[in-house]
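Form 7-S
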Amino acid sequence: MQKTAQADLALVLTTLIWGLSFWVVKESLRFESIWWFLCLRFFMGSVAMTLLLARPVLRTGVREPHKGLVLAVFLYAGFVSQTMGLQYTTPSKSAFITGVSVLLVPVLNRWLFKARMRPVVLLGIVLAFIGMFLLTRPDDLRHVNRGDLLTLLCAAAFALYIVFTGRYTRNASISFQELAWCQMVVTFLLSVPPALIWDTPHFAYGTAFYLALVYLGVACSAVALLLQIWAQRYTSAVRTALIFSLEPVFAAMFSYLLMNERLSFAELTGAALILTGVLIGEIPVLKLKTERLPSSNV
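Output:
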């Protein structure tokens, strides 16, 4: 149970890192198109991941590269579809539709691997999803455009990524280090052809762009994904998705701190519901941890 609690905290840290990345990506795309931007981001992530994991990966080798390939396909598809979708839909609708992955993970986990879910965790997911609606305030959902459909594809890709990461990390035949390194390198390799075909590579950027690229490549791509893959060895895919629902909460927090944006009552209520949902999802871990504590004579 101590490992599970540590894993959940690692996922919260991962979500915190991604919460800040929304604004970094938004500013960075002012200088570059998505294909070359993603290629540079995953190149930086591959370099960082190699520096972090060179010793353990060289010691064990990559024994099951197909698993890294599967995760890389889901990861790259999620990033591409989300970024392309933002060209045709609003940020609020994009944030909300991406959050559909919170609902898709338990469905896919049940359908693909017959995994069960505690009712209390399901309650947490429902509360978090309602909170996400209030916090992101999506525009008229009755009118669906191609950007919305692309973002829905993004939600499905990220949900599959979470489900298969949970499945692969529990397999003792592969270490989380080689799985993390392999998927990052393959994701970079997948990003190269589109960047060369549809973009004109160049490097004449300002200092701010390269600082943003370092943050996105090192923190958001290498460190955050490494934390996620390690954490999913000790916690479920469903609880992982539930914790990731905190991303718009952290994004709103950074908006307040960095951009001085104020939250309405509905948005604050949504943030509170998401936090409540995540805490409810932690009840099974807290309950089991309490049951294992030695009884007191007091």
